[in-house]
Amino acid sequence: MSDIKKLGWKEIPEGGLIAKAGNSATYETGSWRSVRPVRDEEKCTNCLICWVYCPDCSILVSDGKIKGIDYSHCKGCGICATECPVKAIKMINEKEFTD
Amino acid sequence: MANLKELSKKEEILSGGHRLCAGCGASIVVRQVLSALDDPVVVANATGCLEVATTIYPYTSWKSSFIHNAFENAAATISGTEAMFKSLKRQGKIDKEIKFIAFGGDGGTYDIGLQSLSGALERGHNFVYVCYDNEGYMNTGIQRSSATPRGAWTTTTPAGKVIPGKAQYHKNLTEIVAAHNIPYVAQANPWRWNDLIEKARKAFYTDGPAFINVLSPCPRGWRFDSKDTVKISKLAVQTNFWPLYEVENGVWKLNYRPKERKPIKEWMEAQGRYRHLFRSENEHIIKEIQEEIDKNWEKLLVKCGEK
Ligand code: SF4
Ligand code: SF4
């Protein structure tokens, strides 16, 4: 998976400050997932419907094309797979993966 | 019309790693609304699921300026911020364009923050208010709000032998806001992303207060599978439970008309919170709710000049 770790009390900034805007990106929610979305690049038409519906900003797009899925944040809700108009995303049980 | 390829090139304001439930409608709504922006933004957030789950110390999911004050005063907080911005601009201390938005759940908007919202609308601040309406106090464990629809189970409107879920109809907040005669009011839904993003763009780039009430399905509180959030949004529109319309400078306009209105039963069947209504002793409630929806739809058609 990823090497994102929780901050311990020694790493937390003094005075209760949050040092960086959007730093929840370093917090892993991918471990919540029990099913993993896997995209078939051949079928995908890059319509970006999955991107506009993902609640976890986990469909990675660059230059108008899907570059992958952010598994450190994807919670496996399955919305992308349900809404993909060409059924290019399948939800696969996490047990099938070793990483 | 919003173009997804272009929108996806903008930097996102909300980061992943927030702790909203899997399949939560709120973050879909936030992402779609903020994608309409071309300027920096200050976000105020009423207490609620969105605020709690995006700001768990020592993390924040917001790349923009962000203010949480209290449950009841997101609109007052953003009013003050906007007033300060105006003053700084007048003094020549700031010259760029900045947008102001408050997000509140239905608890923070229909109930607890209604006075603060009403005040900010009446004073005419230049801001956007988006209510993500998940029809209950979900963050504290699914209690009823004035947005919870009739018949729905919540922990404070339990469904049992005596009480068949919530007894009252939900209040029509969109129309309450429209009665303030502000420049822009709309009702939207994340399924129709194009409609929602277009409404958000209008709201941000309208001079004066703008309000959008967005239905935000809650898998946990409404009792449905997280993969169905968008499907449930769609059913809400197809059954006329949540019509899509806007009121621009006093002119009402219907934005979507289902080809054939689906019975409200289909929206209810898809959610566990209505399960008890399908017992024979409660079926008259479904009928009454259907009549209410049909009546409200007819009234809306008249307001929108469709009849
Ligand atoms: S919705 Fe499906 S076809 Fe469209 S971009 Fe996503 S995976 Fe590709
Ligand atoms: S499963 Fe859910 S969280 Fe994961 S990429 Fe798909 S829509 Fe996003």
TrEMBL record, chain A:
GO MF terms, alphabetically ordered: 4 iron, 4 sulfur cluster binding; metal ion binding; oxidoreductase activity, acting on the aldehyde or oxo group of donors, iron-sulfur protein as acceptor
Cofactor(s) required, per the database record: [4Fe-4S] cluster
UniProt cross-references to InterPro entries, sorted A to Z: 4Fe4S_Fe-S-bd (IPR017896), 4Fe4S_Fe_S_CS (IPR017900), PorD_KorD (IPR011898)
Domain 4Fe-4S ferredoxin-type: 35-63, 64-94
The entry's keywords: 4Fe-4S, Iron, Iron-sulfur, Metal-binding, Repeat
Pfam family, one: Fer4
PANTHER family the UniProt entry points to: PYRUVATE SYNTHASE SUBUNIT PORD
Alphabetized NCBIfam families for the sequence: PorD_KorD
Protein name: Ferredoxin
Organism whose genome encodes this protein: Candidatus Infernicultor aquiphilus
Automatic annotation (TrEMBL), chain B:
GO terms, biological process: small molecule metabolic process
Superkingdom, taxonomy of origin: Bacteria
Keyword flag Oxidoreductase: yes
Boundaries of every Thiamine pyrophosphate enzyme TPP-binding domain copy: 47-214
GO MF annotation, one: oxidoreductase activity
Pfam families xref list: TPP_enzyme_C
Keywords in alphabetical order: Oxidoreductase, Pyruvate
PANTHER family: PYRUVATE SYNTHASE SUBUNIT PORB (PTHR42897)
Name of the molecule in the record: Pyruvate ferredoxin oxidoreductase
